[in-house]
Specification:
The complex is a heterodimer of chains A (307) and B (285).
Chain A (H helix, E strand, L loop, with lengths): L2 H10 L2 H24 L2 H10 L2 E2 L7 E2 L3 H8 L1 H31 L7 H14 L3 H10 L5 H8 L14 H11 L2 H13 L2 H9 L4 H29 L3 H6 L13 H11 L3 H29 L5
Antiparallel strand pairs in A: 1-2
Helix pairs in contact in A: 3-15, 4-15, 5-9, 5-10, 5-12, 6-10, 10-12, 12-15, 14-15
Chain B lengths: L8 H33 L20 H7 L6 H32 L5 H12 L3 H14 L7 H8 L4 H12 L3 H9 L4 H12 L1 H17 L2 H6 L8 H11 L5 H33 L3
Helix pairs in contact in B: 1-13, 2-13, 3-6, 3-7, 3-10, 4-7, 8-9, 10-13, 12-13
Chain lengths: 307, 285
């Protein structure tokens, strides 16, 4: 086959090229495909099966029908875990995105020190999920912690923020808001896409900064806002480390930091109730899928596409 | 840099210093706890509670020596374990994700759209959903308390986020290069290894940095798979250290926390550019 023929076939595609590509794709995708079977999609299907069993890793799984799924509906501690997780997600994500957008708007294009500010505000996003920061949080919000020392200067009497069930979750919400840097960077990239002429035209027409924000910035940024919202909600549902470290693995005090993932961990890896943990895993998948679906549905009403 | 009317001379003269002051103050408050942790780790243990400030009377390293040797084996082992794990994960991700990305970006195979959709779907798949059967599998084949359950998934391109990042990058490379190589008689393996791979260094750098930071910080899977103190990584060891000491020894806990964050700081300093680009184009965590 001459080189010219080869090129022509590349352009138009042919059975032969496709056949050769199939063969090449098989090898290039072999690791990924094995991962699909053994590490990602395979286990998802397997956990569906395990959800119908009683299994503790030692004795072989025993089929118990829908018991585990029925248990989900009567498990009071799980319902509390759902309440804690929903509160955490629904409060911390909007606050986090509001901070991210606010700071991104302040960091105008071409402003002096932009790179410096961007890095400084982004750093907590990298640190936030570490055990070290959870240790720090335990101290800062403890009875003898940094926060109470600072409050003491102003004559305010503090308390053990983490040991009080009413405020323990708030400290974790603060921690999630603290990591607003990565959505901020996505906002910054989005803001840079908005043509400056829009603002020029608007200010010639006498539009205030306020109405420019509502009528130009926000509509044009809404796809980015939507993207961040979907991503951060999924991300927040998976929070684990901070609640685990702050509560010493218990989800306490009084189950006030019992995230869904923490409860799942306890069922699966402290009590080795693998069947129930599998059912919980599936339920979590359904919850996240539902939230994402609702997000996509609601997007029709507020996300604006400029094309 | 574009200029627009928002940056009129009058507006700038008035608003800019105030804005800078506000941003600096806000940034300082945000980072204050971290700075304070570093300062406190260099104070004698009993002083930590008393001083919420950053200024040190003297430099004390006793917290570091005490914390470093508090557990058996010492923190050096955990650092080494984490480093080995991170290295394995980086190599795994670079090789497997770039291969998969090449196939998705350049090959024309049957059912491509379908497979691509599945790949995108797995980006959203939380580890918590798959951890139970995965653990059953890995414990059956005796991999618990080895690094294999943590590294093998990377070798199998399960970090779909990076596959997607690389697909995006390869799509941006001119196809003419591939075609020229094809005319010269190169097959896909050579086009991949000698044309595409060298050109996608920025995407590989982004993958390296993110894999480094995420693996170093990752706690959930390491907590589950590593239960033998000899195999502990830094986060698991740190947590076990915190659990085993009483609350009064904040000094050494802070010292080891700082030690565990140093590699992240360094990765951040070296890789900032790639981090920012990676997030801006694909929306990382």
């Amino acid at each position: 086959m001459s080189a010219l023929d080869e090129l022509r076939q590349l352009r138009h595609g042919s059975v032969q090229v496709r056949k050769r590509d199939n063969k090449a794709a098989f090898w290039f995708l072999a690791p990924w495909f094995a991962g699909l079977v053994f590490i990602t999609v395979g286990p998802v299907l397997a956990s569906f099966g395990l959800g119908f069993t009683k299994y503790n890793l030692i004795q072989p799984p025993k089929f118990i029908g829908f018991d585990n799924f029925v248990r989900i509906f009567s498990d009071e501690r799980l319902h509390n875990a759902l309440r804690v997780t929903f509160t955490y997600v629904l409060v911390s994500v909007p606050l986090q995105l509001a901070c991210a957008l606010g700071v991104a708007l302040l960091l105008d294009r071409g402003m002096r020190g932009l790179a410096f500010y961007r890095s400084a505000f982004y750093l907590p996003s990298l640190l936030g999920s570490s055990v070290a920061i959870a240790v720090l949080w335990t101290q800062v919000f403890g009875a003898e912690g940094l926060l109470n020392r600072v409050l003491g200067f102003f004559g305010v009497e503090g308390k053990g923020w983490i040991s009080d069930p009413d405020t323990a979750l708030s400290t974790l919400i603060v921690l999630n808001v603290w990591t607003f840097g990565s959505p901020m960077i996505i906002f910054l990239a989005g803001l840079r896409q908005i043509p400056a002429v829009y603002y020029e035209a608007a200010s010639i027409d006498g539009a205030s900064r306020w109405s420019q924000f509502w009528r130009i910035t926000l509509p044009l940024l809404s796809p980015i806002l939507f993207f961040n919202l979907v991503l951060q909600i999924i991300h927040a549902f998976q929070s684990f480390t901070q609640a685990f470290v702050v509560s010493g693995g218990t989800g306490g005090p009084s189950d006030s930091t019992m995230f869904y993932t923490l409860y799942l961990y306890q069922q699966g890896f402290s009590r080795f109730d693998m069947g129930y943990a599998s059912a919980l895993a599936w339920f979590l998948l359904l919850i996240i899928a539902a939230f994402t679906a609702i997000n996509f549905w609601a997007a029709k009403f507020w996300v604006f596409y400029d094309d | 840099m574009t200029t627009d009317l928002r940056n009129t001379r009058f507006g700038r003269r008035l608003a800019t210093p105030a804005k800078h002051l506000g941003l600096l103050l806000f940034g300082f408050v945000m980072l204050y706890p971290v700075l304070w942790m570093i300062a406190s780790s260099l104070r004698p243990g009993d002083e930590i509670f008393r001083s919420p400030g950053l200024i040190l009377d003297s430099l004390q390293t006793e917290n570091y020596t005490e914390g470093w040797n508090a557990l058996t084996p010492s923190f050096g082992t955990y650092m080494l374990n984490s480093a080995m794990l991170v290295l394995g994960c980086i190599v795994g991700n670079l090789v497997s994700c770039s291969m998969a990305a090449y196939a998705f970006a350049r090959l024309n195979f049957s059912g491509k759209r379908w497979w691509f959709g599945i790949m995108l779907g797995t980006i959203m798949l939380p580890i918590h959903v798959i951890i139970v059967p995965q653990y059953v599998l890995f414990s059956q084949i005796g991999w618990v308390n080895t690094f294999l359950p943590l590294i093998v998934p990377k070798i199998l391109a399960t970090d779909a986020f990076f596959v997607f990042l690389m697909v995006q990058f390869i799509r941006g490379l001119p196809r003419e290069l591939d075609e020229a190589a094809r005319i010269d008689g190169c097959g896909h393996p050579r086009i991949f290894a000698q044309i595409v791979l060298p050109l996608m260094k920025p995407a590989l750098a982004t993958t390296t940095i993110f894999t480094f930071i995420w693996t170093w910080n990752d706690f959930f899977t390491q907590l589950i798979y590593l239960t033998d103190p000899e195999m502990y990584t830094v986060p698991v060891a740190l947590r076990s250290f915190v659990d085993s000491t009483v609350a009064t020894s904040w000094g050494s806990q802070f010292a080891m926390s700082v030690v565990s964050l140093i590699p992240i700081f360094l990765a951040f300093l070296i890789g900032q550019r790639y981090l920012v680009k990676g997030i801006a184009t694909t929306g990382g965590k």
